[in-house]
Write a structure and sequence with these properties.
mainly alpha; three-stranded antiparallel beta sheet; 3 strands; about 65% helix; flat
């Protein structure tokens, strides 16, 4: 039999393509059935949450976590707050204030393209490490209970160790994407992230803040 002419637009299958094709066929054949079975096996609230868009589901979960957090702070802090600040509501008010700031930040940053965060990876790490040094300087850091973890004044205080969580995530994501795109060796991807982690961990333990 005469061979049909090769379609120039057709991609030549490569290694591992068979698995993708197999997965696609399985998904077409049984995907709807599996989805229906999984949905029937889930509790009603989970099915309702899974049916929502990702952003809405995340928003609901974060809101629930914040509400639970406020309830826990409100029920656990009155005695300590009264002994420390002479008011049973100071810690709860401070937590609520920061939650309001966090919601405002969420609404602002949700409108920013996440790719723009890549430019902030290194500056964010540098600034945060500077703040971790600052809390150890007498007169700049706020010392309480034998630890110097905070910087700021009044009820508006910043804990640099918390900001370091965001800095590490943004920095690590940028390094991984940028260097993996260039097929860099694994050690060139891991070494900078581990270096920042070691410096940050040393400064946080120095506060000390092992929590």
């Amino acid at each position: 039999a005469r061979r049909a002419p090769r379609d120039p637009t057709r991609r030549v299958p490569g290694p591992g393509d068979g698995f993708h094709h197999l997965g696609a066929r399985i998904g077409e054949a049984g995907g709807m059935e599996r989805t229906a079975t999984a949905a029937r096996g889930r509790p009603a609230p989970v099915r309702w949450l899974a049916a929502l868009p990702t952003s809405a589901a995340l928003g609901i979960l974060v809101t629930l976590l914040c509400v639970v957090g406020l309830v826990m702070v409100g029920s656990a802090s009155p005695v300590i707050s009264l002994m420390t600040y002479h008011s049973p509501w100071t810690i709860f008010i401070r937590q609520t204030l920061w939650m309001v700031v966090g919601v405002a930040a969420l609404l602002i940053f949700a409108r920013i393209d996440y790719r723009k965060w890549r430019k902030l990876g290194i500056p964010l790490v540098v600034v945060t490490i500077g703040l971790l040094f600052a809390v150890l300087v007498p007169g700049l850091g706020v010392t309480a209970g034998g630890s110097s973890r905070w910087i700021g004044f009044g009820l508006l205080r910043l804990q640099p160790s918390e900001l370091m969580k965001l800095a590490i995530v943004v920095f690590a994501a940028d390094i991984v994407v940028r260097r993996m795109d260039r097929s860099a060796p694994a050690k060139q991807v891991i070494a900078p992230v581990v270096g920042v982690l070691v410096v940050a961990a040393a400064l946080i333990i120095k506060q000390p803040d092992v929590g």
